[in-house]
């Protein structure tokens, strides 16, 4: 299971950005857009640009082997990053949504 190395959903955030919001590595944070809100554990990383948040995808199934719970994919207490994507914005050619360019807010939970 991938959850052996990453037991909880994560949101990568640059150290400068994290400091500006009072976020420490491992803290649970909320990531919010006009479309929705999810939670994740902050992962402080120099590998991400300042001002950018990168959320991990695919957190709904439980992992009974490790005793880890699932996350409600339709609740803001869950970790379904699809809830953050604006449904009313689509590429005129492909119909795709802006998965990598959605403005968001973060806060410590």
Write the layout of secondary structure elements.
Elements: E1 10-13, H1 15-20, E2 28-32, E3 37-44, E4 53-55, E5 105-108
Parallel strand pairs: 1-3
Antiparallel strand pairs: 1-4, 2-3, 2-5
Description of the structure:
- This protein is mostly beta strands and 109 residues long.
- It has one domain (2-108): Barwin-like endoglucanases (Beta Barrel).
- Helix content is 6%, strand content 22%.
- It is built from 1 helix and 5 strands, in the order βαββββ.
- The chain has one helix spanning 15-20; strands at residues 10-13, 28-32, 37-44, 53-55, 105-108.
- Strands 4-1-3-2-5 form a 5-stranded mixed sheet.
- A hairpin with a 4-residue loop joins β2 and β3.
- The longest helix is centred in the first third of the chain and has 6 residues, at 15-20.
- The chain is globular and about 45 Å long.
Termini gap:
27 Å
Q: Encode the helix/strand succession as letters.
A: EHEEEE
CATH topology title: Barwin-like endoglucanases
Question: Do you know the CATH architecture?
Answer: Beta Barrel
Helix content: under 10%
Order of strands across the biggest sheet? 4-1-3-2-5
Rounded Rg? 14 Å
Mean of pLDDT? 90
Strand tally is: 5
Report low-confidence residues grouped into runs of 5 or more: none
Provide the number of structural domains: 1
Structure classification? mainly beta
Globally, the shape reads globular
CATH class: Mainly Beta
Largest β sheet strand count, sense and barrel closure = 5 strands, mixed
Strand percentage = 15-25%
């Amino acid at each position: 299971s991938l959850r052996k190395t990453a037991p909880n959903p994560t949101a990568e955030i640059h150290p400068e950005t994290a400091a500006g919001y009072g976020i420490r590595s491992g803290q649970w944070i909320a990531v919010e857009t006009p479309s929705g809100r999810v939670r994740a554990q902050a992962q402080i990383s120099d590998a991400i640009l300042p001002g950018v948040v990168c959320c991990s995808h695919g957190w709904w199934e439980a992992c009974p082997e490790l005793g880890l719970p699932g996350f409600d994919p339709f609740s803001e207490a869950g970790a379904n990053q699809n809830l953050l994507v604006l449904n009313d914005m689509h590429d005129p050619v492909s119909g795709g949504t802006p998965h990598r360019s959605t403005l968001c807010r973060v806060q410590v939970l």
